[in-house]
Amino acid sequence: MARIVMKFGGTSVADIDRIHNVARHVKRETDAGHEVAVVVSAMSGKTNELVGWVQSMARTAGSGTPFYDAREYDAIVASGEQVTSGLLAIALQSMGVDARSWQGWQIPVHTDNAHGAARILDIDGSEIVRRMGTGQVAVVAGFQGIGPDNRVATLGRGGSDTSAVAVAAAVKADRCDIYTDVDGVYTTDPRIEPRARRLPKISFEEMLEMASLGAKVLQVRSVELAMVHKVRTFVRSSFDDPDAPGMGDFENPPGTLICDEDEIVEQQVVTGIAYAKDEAQISLRRVADRPGVSAGIFGPLAEANINVDMIVQNISEDGSRTDMTFTVPSGDLDKALAVLAKVRDTVGFDVVQSEAGLVKVSVIGIGMRSHAGVAATAFKALAEKGINIRAITTSEIKISILIDGPYAELAVRTLHSVYGLDKQ
Ligand code: ADP
Ligand code: ASP
Ligand code: MG
């Protein structure tokens, strides 16, 4: 007998039939004698709908850009998960499985005060563990917890993955299964490249990069938690027949294991390609070239909570003025331009140019640490397709390239194939 946390994403609980199907996956594990806790997302599309309601209410109430209180945003968007946890508990009960729904505050899942993008600080798993001992399944509403202000707090989009791994760590589960609409982690998004291959295993470091560079299959924070707390995490499909052979295999369930790099025997140089749409580029022309200028620009942007990436500074021609180019998420472009307008006189620069709708494509692989020429291969392949590169950043295990939006899919497929990742 083992202890398993099972998480089901939005498409897996999209309607009543699918929730019944999810209940069959859960029953398979309880029938096998395992202790189970479940974490659920909102029905697919629900969170977007709720966010849309918040935005249109804010727009109706005021004017121009919607401004709303993050605590009320959380009160509204957390409701989607409340519904699915109750529905799944009913489905399980109707199949003879003892089950009870739990909202974040009831467990409790304690978070910090960053409403809308809160971090889990600690989870008291004792009551869930006690009930597991009696055979009861806890069905936990993902994506939500309770902040120090005693109010519901949500964990940022995709946050149910993080709820699941955090619950698994809190109850010391033997395994955390993230069920989704694909049957594992692929070499790139299988919806963009049908020749993408499913990876049997991927290292924590590579999964962290894939997630933070746009692969939405796991929320970044969930991978961090799995790595720190050594949670054995699998990504697998909820659309597989719950009772097909091998589905209940404890050691080797179908899917992708996220694990330490030494568990991977055949390490490739490049493991995967990720992409992030909706990047914006800002260029400051003729910036004073003296100490303190970068701090004067990026300090205020950080204070405004704007995530700056890919910074490129040119050599100044006359030793006194330079150009500075960087990227921000498109959604933050207006806010960033407003911040820059305020610091323009103190920092000293001439013009600000900006462009939204760009795409960052990234090549990821631990093997890059010991192989030269990986970046050059990417640049040559993109050049052959006539794709212009706007900016480049690299780290030990990744190369990110900023390109124009319309070339996103071509660039992903080109890189996928040039590194030999295509399915044979
Ligand atoms: P859920 O609702 O279950 O949380 P998500 O939509 O958040 O599911 O994540 C699953 C999606 O992630 C897949 O449908 C797929 O399109 C996308 N995805 C992006 N990159 C990858 C990848 N490398 N491997 C698998 N899926 C990926
Ligand atoms: N329902 C939330 C979202 O759509 C959380 C999740 O699904 O993980 O972002
Ligand atoms: Mg998700």
UniProtKB/TrEMBL annotation:
<dbReference type="Pfam" id="PF01842">
    <property type="entry name" value="ACT"/>
</dbReference>
<dbReference type="GO" id="GO:0004072">
    <property type="term" value="F:aspartate kinase activity"/>
</dbReference>
<feature type="binding site">
    <location>
        <position position="47"/>
    </location>
    <ligand>
        <name>substrate</name>
    </ligand>
</feature>
<dbReference type="InterPro" id="IPR005260">
    <property type="entry name" value="Asp_kin_monofn"/>
</dbReference>
<dbReference type="InterPro" id="IPR001341">
    <property type="entry name" value="Asp_kinase"/>
</dbReference>
<keyword id="KW-0067">ATP-binding</keyword>
<protein>
    <recommendedName>
        <fullName>Aspartokinase</fullName>
        <ecNumber>2.7.2.4</ecNumber>
    </recommendedName>
</protein>
<feature type="binding site">
    <location>
        <begin position="216"/>
        <end position="217"/>
    </location>
    <ligand>
        <name>ATP</name>
    </ligand>
</feature>
<dbReference type="Pfam" id="PF00696">
    <property type="entry name" value="AA_kinase"/>
</dbReference>
<dbReference type="GO" id="GO:0005829">
    <property type="term" value="C:cytosol"/>
</dbReference>
<feature type="binding site">
    <location>
        <position position="191"/>
    </location>
    <ligand>
        <name>ATP</name>
    </ligand>
</feature>
<keyword id="KW-0547">Nucleotide-binding</keyword>
<feature type="binding site">
    <location>
        <position position="81"/>
    </location>
    <ligand>
        <name>substrate</name>
    </ligand>
</feature>
<comment type="similarity">
    <text>Belongs to the aspartokinase family.</text>
</comment>
<dbReference type="GO" id="GO:0009089">
    <property type="term" value="P:lysine biosynthetic process via diaminopimelate"/>
</dbReference>
<dbReference type="InterPro" id="IPR001048">
    <property type="entry name" value="Asp/Glu/Uridylate_kinase"/>
</dbReference>
<dbReference type="InterPro" id="IPR036393">
    <property type="entry name" value="AceGlu_kinase-like_sf"/>
</dbReference>
<comment type="pathway">
    <text>Amino-acid biosynthesis; L-methionine biosynthesis via de novo pathway; L-homoserine from L-aspartate: step 1/3.</text>
</comment>
<keyword id="KW-0028">Amino-acid biosynthesis</keyword>
<dbReference type="InterPro" id="IPR018042">
    <property type="entry name" value="Aspartate_kinase_CS"/>
</dbReference>
<dbReference type="InterPro" id="IPR054352">
    <property type="entry name" value="ACT_Aspartokinase"/>
</dbReference>
<feature type="domain" description="ACT">
    <location>
        <begin position="282"/>
        <end position="357"/>
    </location>
</feature>
<dbReference type="InterPro" id="IPR045865">
    <property type="entry name" value="ACT-like_dom_sf"/>
</dbReference>
<comment type="pathway">
    <text>Amino-acid biosynthesis; L-threonine biosynthesis; L-threonine from L-aspartate: step 1/5.</text>
</comment>
<feature type="domain" description="ACT">
    <location>
        <begin position="363"/>
        <end position="424"/>
    </location>
</feature>
<keyword id="KW-0457">Lysine biosynthesis</keyword>
<dbReference type="GO" id="GO:0009088">
    <property type="term" value="P:threonine biosynthetic process"/>
</dbReference>
<keyword id="KW-0418">Kinase</keyword>
<feature type="binding site">
    <location>
        <begin position="7"/>
        <end position="10"/>
    </location>
    <ligand>
        <name>ATP</name>
    </ligand>
</feature>
<feature type="binding site">
    <location>
        <position position="186"/>
    </location>
    <ligand>
        <name>ATP</name>
    </ligand>
</feature>
<dbReference type="GO" id="GO:0005524">
    <property type="term" value="F:ATP binding"/>
</dbReference>
<dbReference type="InterPro" id="IPR041740">
    <property type="entry name" value="AKii-LysC-BS"/>
</dbReference>
<dbReference type="Pfam" id="PF22468">
    <property type="entry name" value="ACT_9"/>
</dbReference>
<keyword id="KW-0808">Transferase</keyword>
<feature type="binding site">
    <location>
        <begin position="180"/>
        <end position="181"/>
    </location>
    <ligand>
        <name>ATP</name>
    </ligand>
</feature>
<dbReference type="InterPro" id="IPR002912">
    <property type="entry name" value="ACT_dom"/>
</dbReference>
<dbReference type="GO" id="GO:0009090">
    <property type="term" value="P:homoserine biosynthetic process"/>
</dbReference>
